[in-house]
User: Fold Polypeptide N-acetylgalactosaminyltransferase from Tigriopus californicus.
Amino acid sequence: MITPIRLIWLKLRHRLNWRVIKLFMCMGYGVFMIALVIHMLQSNPGPVKALKSSPYRHLYLEEEIPPEIVQFEKQIVPGLGEDGKGIEIKDKKLLDETVKKYAFNRLASDQISLKRTLPDVRHEACKKIQYDDTLPAASVIIIFNNEILSTLLRTVWSVLQRTPPEFLHEIVLVDDASNLTEISTVLPIYLKYRLPANVILHRLVEQVGLIGARLAGAKVASGEAIIFLDSHCEATEGWIQPLLQRIKDKPNNLVIPSIDSISDKTLAFNGFPGGVGISVGGFTWSGHFTWIPFKHNGTRKPSDPAPTATMAGGLFGANREFFFKIGGYDEGMKGWGGENLELSFRTWRCHGSMENVPCSHVGHIFRDFHPYFIPHDSHGINTARMAEVWMDEYKRLFYMHRQDLQREIPSPIDIGDISSRVQIKDTLKCKSFKWYLDTVYPDKFILDDQSIAYGRIRNQKYPNICFDHLQRDTAHKNGFYFLGQYPCHNVLGDSQYFSLSRDKFELRNEYMCAKSFDNEGSIKVQMVGCRDQQSRKTAWKFENGALIHVDSGLCITAPNDSAGEELVLSKCDGTKQQMWDFEFLNP
Ligand code: UD2
Ligand code: MN
Assistant:
């Protein structure tokens, strides 16, 4: 029996060509399949891998971006400052005013792209290193008070762009109670519209200073590693792997990148690959950080990390757990300064180590002054806290520079309670400061211990007259000068503290060594930077009160009893003008 449907079908088939029917059927199937694919693509958020490989979330359409951001970004002049180049501001008056106000060229910063390119300044040896695929992920902590927004965001973008996402746990921004409108209003909006979700802003209600702000950041951070950066930095290609690798290999190791300079006047990025010889950190007895050449035995490779006695302070990484295990930072330290030597001494003494990692490069704008409030003498007071806890009996050499801070002398300056910090030494069984000096920084000159005689040097004919550097001494900066005389001070301070060293017979202070200098016929005692090697030119003899220059055979003579005169070198004649008494003699 034939059904009605089959009858219609047979009639149609009879009328239409069978081939045409087949064509229609194929077309229908094709359209269906295309529609299906489109539907699937629309309902699927996309392959997960693509999302992972990009650290940025663009959640908003350009037309949704608020005017504050549009305005802020309008200042950027495309192309300016690319490849780390500097830009010249033609209007010199405007430039001066800007630098005076912000401590660096803010105009240049505002015009340069937040994502500018930088040169890859790494040493060739560094580029060849294969780092592990899995490294501890880092919380990058950036603290700031009234930082210029473009500079701060360039720091953030440099980290986002040049850190593989798997190594960047988060960026923690700590606003140390800024009151710039840009920071208080534009930054949070920028964060919401332009930055990925792992950039976190943490705001402090009251300015606590850089130590407190860093601690606050470290406490909220949850990465296995933490890396601190100043808020005016730019991280370069491959910056993070060398740091994380060293933290992974040795979790009690604090790591410091090569700190390249970004010009405060033009914002030009100046980086140097470094070589076999590099600089590491030292310190002055007055409690300041210095750079010193790293002493190596000739087998060092340019990519090798170099142990360092101290750190500059601003840029370093650590295993988070280790950082807190040894006491984080000293919460009693206010404002700015001193925390870097405190952390350095503590790390080494409490079974850690520190090294400069030359394959990691980060630029930093070095500024001539601090464009923010700092409590009076916070560096000095923080350093006194540090000296009390971490310098043991060697704190005497710090107080020689800062008698005003000595605790034994009644003073209105209160360094606060240090008991919890002292406790760390017991709890962790930390080694002594002497161990640190002997082992980590054996080249540090110890003014008293390493001398035959030291202290004030008083003239026998004019007993009121002492050797004095007449405030001409620039310490580690090694600026040479003629040594002078001045009425002896009541207490031994650094201007009159001189030593006759035991191993090289140098007449010296911390950095400067005496030699003779013929100044147009009158021979003076010239102070020059002490050398590593023994030199006849800087050797002296102390015989029966006479200070005799070995090379010339001449004696140091007080020309008269006037304050501020320069000492002279003259033929030894046994008179009292050439006789001197050292305040202390070592057996
Ligand atoms: C150096 C260090 C710096 C710090 C300092 C004190 C480098 C490159 N820089 O001075 O990191 O260790 O020595 O020893 O090693 N800040 C606040 N709140 C304040 C004051 C400062 O958050 O009350 C921020 C500031 O915005 C900046 C950071 O702390 O991001 C360091 O201050 P700086 O850049 O003025 O110090 P700097 O580089 O002269
Ligand atoms: Mn800085």
